[in-house]
Inverse folding.
């Protein structure tokens, strides 16, 4: 069992910058490491190698965890699904720290699902978090999803997958169930005097992106989101909020940004 110690410099190290210890670990099928999250330590089993790249914790996980702790009021009480969960570490942290109702998801791959379940159990999360196997762009397993918050960290590595990711986001953020729920909330708000909600819009996609790729490639995703009917807002610290243009007003987005720590 190894203890993973992270500093800003190691989090953003080049992909080819491996220590001799890490090289030795690739000979094993799994490696268990202790990772420090805000207020707790988690024991996470990681694949030494996984063909779908769901093997390790990536830089955005830790940065996103810190940001969410500083802005926890935006996500508390939400019904959440994480895309590209990988090891499940971020979801486990949010469940334990915020008591967040969260579902993990990743490629349609049994090995990933079983590893997330293992990490849940060794960190005292039982029953294990619900999990959905879903490859972006494929038909989504839930016919009418009702998660009002989608989160992800460091998932923009594969440029060719951007159209598929945006297709999945369209299913999750534009479902009829969410539209009906939002219409009901708007009517109730008007009946109660029209109090303006400055919290995170419902639904919303919160994404932390810390990997280093070219600005041109990065912009392909955000431009694709806008072409698909979403608005993109940078909230600071490389965290982005993506919401349907026809469901969230610009004033609500700006009020939310002003409330962020």
């Amino acid at each position: 069992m190894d203890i993973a110690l992270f500093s800003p410099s190691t989090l953003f190290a080049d992909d080819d910058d491996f220590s001799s210890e890490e090289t030795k670990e690739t000979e094993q099928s799994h490696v268990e490491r202790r990772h420090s999250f805000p207020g707790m330590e988690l024991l996470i089993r990681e694949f030494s190698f996984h063909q779908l790249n769901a093997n390790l914790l990536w830089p955005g996980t830790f940065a996103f965890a810190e940001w969410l702790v500083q802005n926890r009021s935006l996500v508390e009480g939400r019904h959440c699904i994480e895309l590209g969960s990988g090891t499940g570490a971020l979801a486990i942290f949010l469940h334990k720290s915020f008591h967040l109702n969260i579902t993990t998801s990743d490629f349609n791959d049994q090995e990933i699902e079983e590893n997330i379940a293992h990490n849940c159990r060794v960190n005292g999360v039982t029953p294990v978090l619900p999990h959905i196997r879903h490859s972006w762009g494929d038909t989504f397993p839930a016919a009418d999803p009702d998660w009002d918050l989608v989160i992800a960290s460091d998932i923009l590595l594969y440029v060719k997958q951007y159209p598929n990711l945006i297709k999945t986001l369209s299913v999750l953020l534009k479902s009829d169930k969410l539209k009906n729920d939002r219409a009901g909330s708007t009517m109730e708000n008007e009946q109660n005097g029209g109090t303006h909600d400055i919290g995170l819009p419902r639904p919303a996609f919160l994404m932390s992106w810390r990997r280093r790729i070219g600005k041109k490639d990065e912009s392909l995703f955000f431009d694709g989101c806008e072409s698909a009917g979403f608005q993109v807002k940078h909230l600071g610290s490389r965290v982005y909020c993506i919401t349907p243009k026809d469901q969230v007003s610009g004033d609500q987005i700006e009020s939310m940004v002003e409330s962020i720590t």
In short: The chain has a mean pLDDT of 81. The longest strand covers residues 30-37.
